[in-house]
# Entry
Amino acid sequence: MRKALIIIFLLLVLSACSVETIEKDPSLKGTLNENKDNETAPNEETTDSETEKYTFDKTYFLFTINTQDYVYPQESVETINRIIDIHEKYNVAVDIYLEDQIFQYYAYDAPELVERLKDSEVVAISYHVRAPHPTDVDYWYLNEKTDTEELYEFLLPYEEYKMNLETGEVDTSMPGGYQFIKDTIGYAPIVVPMKSDSQTVDEVMARIYSEKGATWTLLHERGIKLGEQEQGMYVRPEDAEIKWYDSYEEYSQGSSAEEMILEIMENEGITAGDYAFVNLKMHENNFIEGDGTAAYWETYGTDKDPPFDLSLAYNVPVWPEEQREMMFQMYEDAVKYVSEHPELYITINAKDLDPLLEASQENI
# Structure
């Protein structure tokens, strides 16, 4: 009897230690419930493993949305919400490149959109800049700065504070730039721009972005292969770019999304199903402004010296409702077409780039 009591006591001690281990190790908390929730029913399809997902016998397709329309901010909010709706409807990944000026509006006036950007399973956040950010074009305030450290000290605040659109200077009383988006979204925007014509400026910006957590950049060039690097950062691969907004007239005359996509790919030497990377690009203002000109460029396109006349941007008209709806339909048709052909396409966004790169290295 005494021996049996000792055994029971030891079992109770071991059980208590196991519970304590789970409580003390945060990485183990919830593991049992999470595993149970993630179990697959016998008759359900299992999720592809990472290795199976990233094959090298299909066309990788990226949908890219660039935000930039702080001239019509509420329309920008509505547009991004509709784009997310479309991608969630077809379960197709999308990259949304946030620009700080319009994101300031999202953060303070459309917090529900920010939550969607954070939580949607199809969305990945990256970052880009627009004038008068000094790296967008060669503005006056870079002309005499050639020393690397001087440039670093000058450019760093643009990625930590809000930029004044009229003066082109930073307002250190307000957060902004890459850091603000990172802090608000909850992770470092994955892909960042290299936009200047200066190797030194690009080197400095790569340093700033890398320090803040970015790992990928992009170049507006064709034939960029997975694994290529620029300024110590991996470059988003791209074999063909489809500027989908340029297809509006053809679409309005009766051409289908499938026909236009296949034709553009063919012109780039790509057949659907080839191992290649195709990027279909839109700006949110393509759904808003009707003459093909981004409104902000009316202010900054020719005038390089502050103060900038912000009223010029409002000279750009918005789409009539009928044309705007047709643009949305054209975009949805593209997403729908790609989603219906998994035998040809794998849709990815920036969150896939690291595991895809790893899979490609294992495939060598």
